[in-house]
């Protein structure tokens, strides 16, 4: 594929749109067309909303673009994110879990492999660096051309028209839900995902040892004799202490592979947005690295994603040949979309259809309500950030300057007994100017982390409409099975198989919600504690300054009376 998007030999890209998706056929029956159909829904609404957001965003507001186009489409019911709890040991989790879903460092870096060589660029579309890709508002970086038709909205990639190389995704001919529910016998995949039942319901099996991935040491590289530049990040696993280097587009590739493979069972939040202008500036690189770190930490601490072949290969390849081999293997994986449920094995009896539907509805209600709450907090936090970095410090500065001006006027009176008073008023004015600086700096110490956590969860919650829609679609098919049996379109055994497979899907949903709730409780406990602690320190600092001024004023009054 050429840089301008023309078709090249052996590769063919298409725009998946609402009008064209029915004619797609690639000849393999194992993939899930319904999953990919969801990627193209609501394109017009997304582009329109992104354009309005771009025009309204302010340069000094790091979250001005978060409230548009980041969540899934909850309103029409169609299918459409950094810290997690430490996973428990496999032995202890049958009796322990963090929450009942029903209730609602520096590391040594050895010489790292430098990633795919420049000669491998034909495997990586230059469209990853298309200047029309999303450019989010971040501190002084305004959005540029993100709302142009056809541009990929990273924060809402599920709802926008996406440019996907279809030859990379096998089997794209028929709706995948029927293929999973009605298959006479599911192929036995090599990978198995067990689901156990603990004291708080179904849960994933956590590995006995956990790991994290440190994203650090961003370096600027170039290719094409310096005509094209990029930033490369070093990734080091804490369990191996080995390092590999990846560019942003490699993260993007991993995100798409995880989305294609697990997206109907596990929420895979979007990566940080792309940037057109200012992407080599220090502040932007620092923020992107922070958010990539949060995203990788999330993935590392998910017991299913972290153990998957594609994720392990991304972190542990040793040379260029191993990288290419693993990459192509991942792109040929047929266990994608709804077929991921064929790898899951609940260690529990099948669930009743009434219970399955109730559980699904409960998840839908909670995630929708939490999505609304997170968006509200992001909106309020954004407004508070603007106020703390704009009008409020200016008001304190005005008071401080006015007090100092008044003291200057008093000093011209020539009266001998007011020097102490004038000094106290001048000091009060300077203190108010110091308080203005404290107010302007405070959001970076507390509100920043609260907003980042909410932004992550907004990404998670935006994935659930797809997941809920897949489960409801499967439930409806089981409800229709009696009619199909009566008309001899399926056999009674097919109906029984359908019910069993929908039960497996329900166990997977409950296991994921158990994981989600335990992480949610840990994350919000941590970030709210940090926020309140920093707020307390801020007000204590202001109180100490004001108390010192008050003591000096009392001293002035005492000497004046004397």
From TrEMBL:
Cell wall biogenesis/degradation keyword on record: no
Record's compositionally biased regions (Acidic residues): 119-129
Coiled coil spans: none
BP GO terms, sorted: cleavage furrow formation; endocytosis; endosomal transport; intracellular protein transport; mitotic cytokinesis; plasma membrane tubulation
Origin superkingdom: Eukaryota
Lineage of producing organism: Eukaryota, Metazoa, Chordata, Craniata, Vertebrata
Chief place where the protein resides: membrane
Extent of Polar residues compositional bias: 42-76, 92-101
Protein name: Sorting nexin
Subcellular location: Cytoplasmic vesicle membrane
GO molecular function: phosphatidylinositol binding
Family, similarity comment: Belongs to the sorting nexin family.
Species of provenance: Malurus cyaneus samueli
List of residues binding a 1,2-diacyl-sn-glycero-3-phospho-(1D-myo-inositol-4,5-bisphosphate): 247, 249, 288
Keyword DNA-binding: no
PANTHER family cross-referenced by the UniProt entry: SORTING NEXIN (PTHR45827), SORTING NEXIN-9 (PTHR45827:SF2)
Domain (PX): residue spans on this chain: 211-322
């Amino acid at each position: 594929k050429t840089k301008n998007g023309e078709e090249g030999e052996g590769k063919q890209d298409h725009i998946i749109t609402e009008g064209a998706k029915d004619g797609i056929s690639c000849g393999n029956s194992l993939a899930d067309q319904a999953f990919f159909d969801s990627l193209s829904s609501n394109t017009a609404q997304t582009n329109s909303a992104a354009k309005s957001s771009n025009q309204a965003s302010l340069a000094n507001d790091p979250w001005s673009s978060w409230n548009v186009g980041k969540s899934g489409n909850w309103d029409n019911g169609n299918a459409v994110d950094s810290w997690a709890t430490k996973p428990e040991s496999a032995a202890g989790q049958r009796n322990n879990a963090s929450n009942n879903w029903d209730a609602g460092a520096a590391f040594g870096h050895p010489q790292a492999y430098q990633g795919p060589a420049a000669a491998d660029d034909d495997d990586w579309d230059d469209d990853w660096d298309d200047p029309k890709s999303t450019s989010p508002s971040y501190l002084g970086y305004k959005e540029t051309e993100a709302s142009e038709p056809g541009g990929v909205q990273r924060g809402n990639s599920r709802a926008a028209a996406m440019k996907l190389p279809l030859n990379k995704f096998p089997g794209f001919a028929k709706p995948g839900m029927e293929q999973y529910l009605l298959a006479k016998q599911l192929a036995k995949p090599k990978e198995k995902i067990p689901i156990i039942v603990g004291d708080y319901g179904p849960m994933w099996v956590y590995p006995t040892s956990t790991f994290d991935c440190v994203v650090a040491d961003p370096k600027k590289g170039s290719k094409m004799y310096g005509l094209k530049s990029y930033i490369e990040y070093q990734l080091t696993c804490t369990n191996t202490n080995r390092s590999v280097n990846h560019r942003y587009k490699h993260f993007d590739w991993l995100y798409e592979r995880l989305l294609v493979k697990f997206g109907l069972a596990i929420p895979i939040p979007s990566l940080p947005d792309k940037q057109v202008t200012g992407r080599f500036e220090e502040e932007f690189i620092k923020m992107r690295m922070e958010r990539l770190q949060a995203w990788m930490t999330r993935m590392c601490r998910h017991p299913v994603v972290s153990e998957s072949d594609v994720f392990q290969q991304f972190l542990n390849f040793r040379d260029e040949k191993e990288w290419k081999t693993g990459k192509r293997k991942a792109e040929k994986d047929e266990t994608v979309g709804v077929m991921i449920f064929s790898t899951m094995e609940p260690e529990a009896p099948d669930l009743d259809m009434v219970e399955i539907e109730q559980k699904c509805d409960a998840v839908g209600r909670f995630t929708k309500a939490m999505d609304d709450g997170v968006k509200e907090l992001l909106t309020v936090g954004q407004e508070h950030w603007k106020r703390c970095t704009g009008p409020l410090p200016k008001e304190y500065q005005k008071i401080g300057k006015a007090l100092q001006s008044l003291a200057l006027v008093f000093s011209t009176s020539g009266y001998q007994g007011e020097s102490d008073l004038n000094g106290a008023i001048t000091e009060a004015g300077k203190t108010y100017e110091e308080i203005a600086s404290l107010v302007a700096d405070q959001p970076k110490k507390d509100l920043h982390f609260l907003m980042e956590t909410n932004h992550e969860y907004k990404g998670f919650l935006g994935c659930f409409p797809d997941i809920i829609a897949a489960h409801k679609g499967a439930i409806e098919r089981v409800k229709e099975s009696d009619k199909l049996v009566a008309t001899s379109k399926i056999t009674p055994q097919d109906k029984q198989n359908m019910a069993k497979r929908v039960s497996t899907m329900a166990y997977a949903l409950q296991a994921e919600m158990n994981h989600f709730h335990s992480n949610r409780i840990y994350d919000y406990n941590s970030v709210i504690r940090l926020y309140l602690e920093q707020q307390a320190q801020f007000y204590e600092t202001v109180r100490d300054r004001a108390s010192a001024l008050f003591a000096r004023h009392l001293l002035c009054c005492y000497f004046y009376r004397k």
